Amino acid sequence: MLPYPQIDPVALDLGLIKIHWYGLMYLVGIGGAWLLASRRLAGFDASWSKEKLSDLVFWVAMGVILGGRLGYVLFYDFAAYIAEPLKILRVWEGGMSFHGGLLGVMLATWWFGRRNDKSFFQLMDFIAPLVPIGLGAGRIGNFINAELWGKATDLPWAMIFPVGSDPEQLARHPSQLYQFALEGLALFAILWFYSRKPRPTMAVSGMFALCYGIFRFIVEFVRVPDAQLGYLAGGWLTMGQILCLPMILGGLGLIAYAYKRQAALGAAQ
Predict the structure, then answer these.
(1) Got a GO cellular component term for this one (predicted)?
(2) What's the pTM?
(3) Which of 77, 100, 188, 191 could form a disulfide with 132 if both were Cys (CB 3.0 to 4.6 A apart)?
(4) Checking DSSP bridges between strand 10-13 and strand 18-20, what pairing results, if any?
């Protein structure tokens, strides 16, 4: 068994203001995405300025934060937030939904594209390889917060999380680290190398949806579901898995359609 590193969730306490590691992880994700997007900008559109790129990153970040929070409220704990609406503002306590954040990013991307003569999928293909940076950083934030841990296990890398997080004090899967490795590192490597060569429009977006959906679906088997929901769909699927199923199917559909459309266009020429 590995010892859980006792890290204070508050990175910096300034008295009236407390800076949490969880919030800093969002800054890491946004800043890292902007830096890598700057490297990819010339290949995407040489006429774009760094200022326009910054605008895109800003609106996408707003989509992540607002969509992620609202998605968690709607998908995972609607009754609790209706009972205490101001709880929605306490984002440093956790409670963000990837799937809600994805919907927020999609809406922000559609809006930005309409105002900058770019199609929805042109922008989504550009953004997709950057997203795993934020996903990985967010999972590190979950680990520091000692939240979203896994089921009990006797594997040698199991951890006992703080009593305030896990009153049962069982040795558990560090599922946050599994998600960091898969949704962060592995997904970034796949998308970064896949997108280095020209791909038909929609293919990179489809690869993102497919791989994320598969990775998240797998980890959910060892991650404890949210207590207020438990298992759904006959007692064997979590909400995360249910939300990933359309991503997997949609990703496969986008990739197939992208290459079929490219072949049809090539044949027509």
Answers:
(1) plasma membrane
(2) 0.90
(3) 188
(4) antiparallel
Residue 139 labelled as part of a binding site: yes
Show contacts of 68-74: CB within 8 Å, 24+ apart: 68/96, 68/97, 68/98, 68/100, 68/101, 68/104, 69/95, 69/96, 69/97, 69/100, 70/100, 70/104, 71/96, 71/97, 71/98, 71/99, 71/100, 71/101, 71/103, 71/104, 72/96, 72/97, 72/100, 74/100
Q: Tokens 């997080």 correspond to what residue?
A: 165
